[in-house]
Amino acid sequence: xxxxxxxxxxxxxxxxxxxxxxxxxxxxxxxxxxxxxxxxxxxxxxxxxxxxxxxxxxxxxxxxxxxxxxxxxxxxxxxxxxxxxxxxxxxxxxxxxxxxxxxxxxxxxxxxxxxxxxxxxxxxxxxxxxxxxxxxxxx
Length: 139
Hints:
α2 (32-49) packs across α6 (103-117). This protein has helices at 2-27, 32-49, 52-59, 64-71, 86-96, 103-117, 120-129, 132-135. It is mainly alpha-helical. It has a single domain (2-135), classed as Uncharacterized conserved protein DUF2267 (Globin-like), CATH 1.10.490.110.
């Protein structure tokens, strides 16, 4: 049984590394910490813009380790946020990534990875919950 548990950890580490590599590619960087911070910031901004049910459905498709930091610090009360405009959404990313000059580029990069890694049906459900200005960030 211990071996099985260790396998689960190894698998999620490998999947998370693969996701981070894709984010790094999308951002044109070799900085894993930047990729992690970008992924975390965008996932939190997106999660807080979704209904609790939709946030949970998206979370269910994330690798275990990414799912952990997706839910980190989450308070589902008062969700979803009612942001309608791109600048409101980007402000959340900007506040988490103080040294990032282009939060829109970060959002587009993470959304591109999500579009490849999460089922098409789930991505469509997520997009439908967002106002038009935020749907434009998706590839």
